[in-house]
Amino acid sequence: MASFKMTGTLVFIGKTVQVSDKFAKREFVINDGQKDYPQDILFQLVQDKTDFMDKFELGQEVEVSFNMRGRKWTSPQGEDKYFNSLDAWRVDAVAKDESAQDEVADKQEVEDDLPF
């Protein structure tokens, strides 16, 4: 199974839901921050990973490591439906690099001082 990573801003953190005696999940959403077509992406944490979100707040930038999972479900009428889920297995805060921001600000000040 392939693993993926995505960075974005937390816009929703759900509560842990006990689906059955042996299964618990917690959902959260990050916004990818794209200018033209921003996307809100839903992830889920399962079992012992549900407490990962306890240390985060809305608006915080995070990097999510996840697996894509898919499954088939057959309705009582015999119709097949397919579902996908993004199962997060690691969530890290993105450290803001203030030194890089300072360099950008310094360059802008130098450019603003030019006489032409």
Would you give an account of this structure?
This protein is globular. It is mainly beta. It is 13% helix and 51% strand. Strands 1, 2, 3, 4, 5 and 6 form a 6-stranded antiparallel β-sheet that branches. It has one helix spanning 98-112; strands at residues 3-13, 17-20, 23-31, 40-46, 61-74, 80-93. A hairpin with a 2-residue loop joins strand 2 (17-20) and strand 3 (23-31).
Radius of gyration: 20 Å
Q: Quote the average pLDDT.
A: 87
Our measurement of the CA-to-CA distance between the termini, rounded to an integer number of angstroms, reads 56 Å
Q: Name the structural class.
A: mainly beta
Largest beta-sheet characterization: 6 strands, antiparallel
Strand proportion, as a percent range, falls in over 45%
Shape: globular
Low-confidence stretches: none
List keywords for this structure.
six-stranded antiparallel β-sheet, 1 helix, 116 residues, mainly beta, 51% strand
Task: List the SSEs and their pairings.
Blueprint: E1 3-13, E2 17-20, E3 23-31, E4 40-46, E5 61-74, E6 80-93, H1 98-112
Antiparallel strand pairs: 1-3, 1-5, 2-3, 3-4, 5-6
